[in-house]
Amino acid sequence: MGTLYLVRHGQASFGADDYDQLSARGHEQARRLGEYWRERGMVFDAVLVGSLRRHNQTLDGIGEGLEGLTAPVTTLPGLNEYDSHALLAAIHPQPLPRADTPELYRQHFRMLCDALAQWMAGVISPQGMPSWNDFSAGIQAALEQVRQQHAGHNVLLVSSGGPIATAIGQVLGTSPEATIALNMRLRNSAVTEFSISPKRLMLQTFNTLNHLDSEAHRSWVTHA
User: Fold this and answer.
1) Strands 73-75 and 46-49
2) End-to-end Cα spacing for the chain
3) What distance in Å separates the CA atoms of residue 75 and residue 174, rounded to the nearest whole number?
4) Global model pTM greater than 0.85
5) 28 and 140 Cβ atoms separated by less than 8 Å
6) Residue 187, marked binder
7) Which residues are known to be catalytic?
8) Which residues of the chain have pLDDT under 70?
9) What is the pLDDT of residue 16?
10) pLDDT (0 to 100) of residue 14
11) Which residue among 18, 65, 68, 155 is the one 20 to 30 A from 27 at the CA level?
């Protein structure tokens, strides 16, 4: 039985004009994950990645840490994150202040959770975004590709919190509220594992940071 390793991207640039790029810490997290796997002799047979910049920068960092990633890479736009700005604008059309204090940060994510719930229920249709059903179908298609083509192999999937939480929700059959809660808990460069069989995927681990579990790296843990 193989394993699908779902990796959330390293720390991106929250609060910056362009969120879709890794911070210096994000690059370090990705390289460290690759180093951790290299130290344990990890070999991947296939790689799936979204098309966003932070996804590919994370994959590049993992490859650096592994000192070479030879598996074929498939880019799947269906693994891309939802547009948080469009979601927030759908429920709060007026510009929001930059989330540069703890309270504004918490307010940002409270509103995002509310917007996600409304999108998933079909109450809002954020501009430029697919419906929740279409977004979810893109994740399901990626999981089906893994199940049908890679049973018995190790597969790396690099994406974002929304798609990974959606994948977990599909495997476990969670409610929309639980899926949103899973999304909000995912940490940067965290690894979630599914075992792969031809019949189904099964959750083995969630949101682990074994590669940062040392005194030298514990301060590298981030959430956005």
Assistant:
1) parallel
2) 33
3) 27
4) yes
5) no
6) no
7) 9, 81
8) 14-17
9) 61
10) 67
11) 155
